[in-house]
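hey
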């Protein structure tokens, strides 16, 4: 024990010498504007029976990473359009990068191929003919994985280009955009040979049947690549195709992997359609899963609370079948409105969903970040709109609103982590 105390003391001294002082709330939490739109007393995480110990596994791994610079902490954030846009989740990622070494996003999907909006921190372009499947479709034409989307082609001239963007707020944090390995998550029944092309080289990968992916290990870190096909015959008339469900961009150095998955319009049953969900979860192996799915489940007039909870239980069962120690953090639905003819009507299902999330948290020993209460409850979305934080549809937020939500979730998590870390320091000192 004496050796452990000495080691921890030396780590703290080293952090001070390097300018990375021990964490304190005043220099770790993000400032929140003083606006009369929310109840900041609700910016906290609810734990079943008030027991924060359910997050001990996650906080312990964060502490090891911060103090020793070793290990990996994996966070998975799943949602609908709030997450596909990427602004909400990217703000959490950016905030974590101000405290912890190396924060990556790892799993991405080329949304431009699906002719829909791309997240904010990377670009995707494509050529050729592709067919699209999404988990919001009644009967998707392809098997789907964790990303909830899949694109397929028989076109040998088809290509996809990916370029990660740097952090404009913190340009020195290049770990968000660089990677040294590419996993092309794909099933291939066509005589197409996929290759990954960087600025001056082209690489042919090995197929890994465990992950159902072509794996390309690059000689150096890059921030962009092109997927194309080589040595291709004439495929005129063929029905066999190459089916891509996303990319895993690996950066093996110690740090945090923050994977955000969102599909516009997705509900919990949308993700239950993804038969390859567990296959892709094996790459992520989340320590923390933030679940922000629910706004679309509760959008209709006949919201079945019991079915909503049963669907969530099945989704969490599938997540924990791959990552049994994964802790769960629910974010409740935001207040929202429905468009009724030429006016808007408040969606009172928000309050029903809120109660369902608390019930799910008790059942799964999970946490709840109560966005619904933080906003001010029923009808509060109008006030957020008046202050430029939500869009006119009264369902989605503006970029400023999403970034504010990212700061609030980050602050709630970090307050509890700081409390855990301080308690650990005190326990080590007493011993």
């Amino acid at each position: 024990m004496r050796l452990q105390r000495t080691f921890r003391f030396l780590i703290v001294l080293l952090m001070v010498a390097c300018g990375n002082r021990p964490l304190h709330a005043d220099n770790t939490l993000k400032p929140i504007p003083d606006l009369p739109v929310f109840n900041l007393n609700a910016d906290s995480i609810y734990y079943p029976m008030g027991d924060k110990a359910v997050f001990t596994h996650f906080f312990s791994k964060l502490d090891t990473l911060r103090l020793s610079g070793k290990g990996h902490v994996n966070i998975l954030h799943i949602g609908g359009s709030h997450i596909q846009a990427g602004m909400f989740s990217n703000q959490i990622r950016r905030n974590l990068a101000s405290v912890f070494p190396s924060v990556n996003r790892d799993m991405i999907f080329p949304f431009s191929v699906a002719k829909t909006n791309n997240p904010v921190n990377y670009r995707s372009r494509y050529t050729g003919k592709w067919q699209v499947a999404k988990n919001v479709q009644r009967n998707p034409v392809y098997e789907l994985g964790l990303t909830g989307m899949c694109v397929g082609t028989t076109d040998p001239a088809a290509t996809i280009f990916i370029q990660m963007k740097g952090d404009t707020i913190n340009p020195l944090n290049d770990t968000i955009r660089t990677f040294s390995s590419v996993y092309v998550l794909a099933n291939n029944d066509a005589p197409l040979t996929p290759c990954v092309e960087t600025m001056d080289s082209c690489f042919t990968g090995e197929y890994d049947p465990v992950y159902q992916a072509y794996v390309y290990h690059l000689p150096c870190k890059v921030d962009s690549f092109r997927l194309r096909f080589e040595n291709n015959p004439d495929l005129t008339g063929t029905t066999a195709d190459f089916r891509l469900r996303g990319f895993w961009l690996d950066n093996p150095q110690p740090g945090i992997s923050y994977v955000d998955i969102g599909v516009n319009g997705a509900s919990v049953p949308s993700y239950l359609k993804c038969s390859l969900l567990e296959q892709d979860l094996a790459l992520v192996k989340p320590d923390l899963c933030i679940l922000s799915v629910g706004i679309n489940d509760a959008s209709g007039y006949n919201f079945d609370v019991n079915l909503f909870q049963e669907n969530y239980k099945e989704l969490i069962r599938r997540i924990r079948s791959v990552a049994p120690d994964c802790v769960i953090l629910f974010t409740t639905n935001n207040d929202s409105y429905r468009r009724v003819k030429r006016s808007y009507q408040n969606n009172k299902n928000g309050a029903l969903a809120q109660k369902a999330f608390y019930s799910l948290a008790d059942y799964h020993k999970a946490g709840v970040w109560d966005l619904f209460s933080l906003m001010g409850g029923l009808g509060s979305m109008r006030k957020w709109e008046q202050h430029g934080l939500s869009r006119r549809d009264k369902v989605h937020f503006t970029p400023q609103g999403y970034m504010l939500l990212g700061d609030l979730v980050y602050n709630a998590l970090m307050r509890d982590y700081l409390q855990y870390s301080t308690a650990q320091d005190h326990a080590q000192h007493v011993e």
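The mean pLDDT is 90. The radius of gyration is 22 Å.
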